Amino acid sequence: MTGKFIVSRFIKDYDNINDKNVREKYGFLSGIIGIIINLILFTIQIVLGLITNSIAIIANAINNLTDVTSSLVTLISFKMANKPADKEHPFGHGRIEYISAFIVSFLILMVGFEFVKSSFERIMHPEPLKFSIITLIIMLIAIPLKLWLSHFNKGLGKLINSSTISATGTDSLNDAIILIGLVFSILISYFLNISIDGYVGMIIAIFILLSGISFLKETLNPLLGEAPDPTLIKKLKNGILSYDNILGVHDIIIHNYGPEKIMASLHAEVPCNISIMKIHDIIDTAEKELSEKLDIFIVIHMDPICNNSAEIISTKNTVTELLKNFPIIKSIHDFRIIGDGKCRKILFDAVVSFDDKISEREKENLKKSVIESIKKAYPCYDAIITIDQDYTQ
Question: What percent of the chain has pLDDT over 90?
Answer without folding.
Answer: 8
